[in-house]
Write a structure and sequence with these properties.
TIM Barrel; 2 domains; 6-stranded parallel beta sheet
Length: about 425
């Protein structure tokens, strides 16, 4: 079949290449399908671009990624689904095509997002193999289930296909290439839609080959697309050793958790091009050992010449002001290169934190946004530490930044 994959993400702070579509494209091509990627990120007239692609390629079915439902942050929130819905309904009405949606945004409320967008099918989780199965079913008119669960298979022969992705435009606008070493996350963060997802590691040689293919055409700046790089200490060390031995001269940034690291790992990361690590940190029911791990991490990485940024999520239900102050003072003492603090917690229907808040009437007074939407598809936030109060707590210390006031990401800020 002929499959048109569409990236509807037009967010530009910074623009993010649709790496998920590249992986799906490679998998579909491997199964004999003809694939084109339509990237609408820089399109001045997306509907016209859709019409042109449908007329010239004449696809049998359309796949569309939903990377995010919204920007997650309260102050500068942008809701993406209405624009995506407009694209989907136009494809269905003007071209008579079925539309399959996938991407991380689906995890927020799979059935709810599918219905909101009026799409025909949705793939939950990794789509490389599930999409092939769904397209086969569509071809034989045997597709009955609208929601399908994906699974990841580490197949080193299934390389990504970045066809029709203009990386020069992305780089010119502050975006960078990405790569992924694994899918899933074993952490149990109550506020994260990717928590407790089964982990599948990619073949290291395959990941190195991806990076090399970009380096050979002049792109040597990357951001790791894993939720957190150090999901497995042994794997992370093995990967960095292989990347170092490859001789590729690249620089890259990564997200990591403050546990499951070693001095050897950080040294290898520095040797193979890591210049920035963002630690994802929160104040939800944390013990003393957690903050000790953060201190050890920062004190180990910074002397090696690796910058460390901290993204702190604070102000959870039942969190006392003195607990928040203690966390801020601990980070102030540790002195990473920057600390972004967010006290507006985006709620999604599938999250444990959402269920906790909805079950306690005393917490509902701290809800903001579309509070009447029990599906939480439209932005709903929990907040009991206002921006004004947070500014009072952090004072004039330049190491702190209130997250969400300005757009941007750490690799552009630090």
């Amino acid at each position: 079949m002929k499959v048109l994959l569409v990236n509807p993400n037009t967010y530009m702070a910074p623009p993010v290449p649709p790496i998920g579509l590249e992986y799906v494209s490679g998998s579909l091509e491997q199964q004999g399908h003809r694939v084109e990627i339509l990237d609408l990120c820089f399109s001045k007239n997306p509907i016209e671009a859709i019409d042109t692609a449908c007329a010239s390629f004449r696809p049998d079915v359309v796949g569309m990624t939903v990377r995010n439902v919204d920007t997650v942050l309260y102050h500068t929130n942008e809701f993406f689904l209405d624009e995506i819905k407009h694209f989907i309904e136009h494809i269905q009405a003007a071209h008579g095509l079925q539309v399959i949606i996938g991407g991380t945004g689906i995890l927020t409320n799979p059935a709810g997002v599918l219905d909101y967008l009026n799409a025909d099918f949705a793939v939950i989780g990794p789509g490389e193999h599930a999409l092939n199965e769904l397209i086969t079913a569509i071809q034989s008119n045997s597709a009955t289930e609208r929601l399908l669960h994906g699974s990841f298979h580490a197949d080193p022969s299934c390389l990504r296909s970045p066809r029709n992705i203009d990386y020069k435009k992305y780089c010119d606008q502050g975006g960078i290439a990405g790569f992924r070493t694994h899918n899933g996350c074993s952490s149990s963060c109550a506020y994260c839609i990717e928590a407790d997802a089964k982990v599948f590691f990619k073949k290291i040689d395959s990941v190195i080959a991806e990076i090399k293919s970009f380096a050979e055409i002049g792109y040597n700046h990357f951001h790791l697309c894993d939720s957190e790089f150090n999901e497995s200490l042994d794997y992370s060390i093995e990967f960095c050793r292989a990347l170092k031995n490859s001789g590729l001269q690249i620089q890259w940034a990564a997200y990591m958790k403050p546990s499951d690291f070693s001095k050897n790992l950080l040294r290898l990361m520095k040797d193979c091009g890591v210049y920035l690590i963002t630690l994802t940190v929160d104040t939800w029911k944390k013990c003393t050992a957690y903050w000790t791990d953060i201190e050890k991490f920062v004190f180990t990485a910074k002397p090696m010449g690796i910058k460390v940024a901290v993204d702190l999520l604070a102000g959870f239900p039942y969190e006392k002001e003195e607990e928040t102050i203690e966390a801020l003072n601990t980070l102030r003492r540790i002195q990473p290169d920057s600390i972004s603090v967010n006290t507006y917690i985006r709620l999604y229907q599938t999250l444990p934190i959402t269920k906790i808040i909805q079950s306690d009437p005393s917490l509902k007074e701290f809800l903001l946004g579309h509070t009447e939407d029990t599906t939480c598809i439209k932005p709903v936030f929990y907040n009991h530490i206002s921006t004004e109060k947070l500014r009072e707590l952090i004072g004039e210390d330049p190491i702190f930044r209130v997250e969400g006031i300005e757009k941007g990401v750490n690799y552009l800020r630090v």
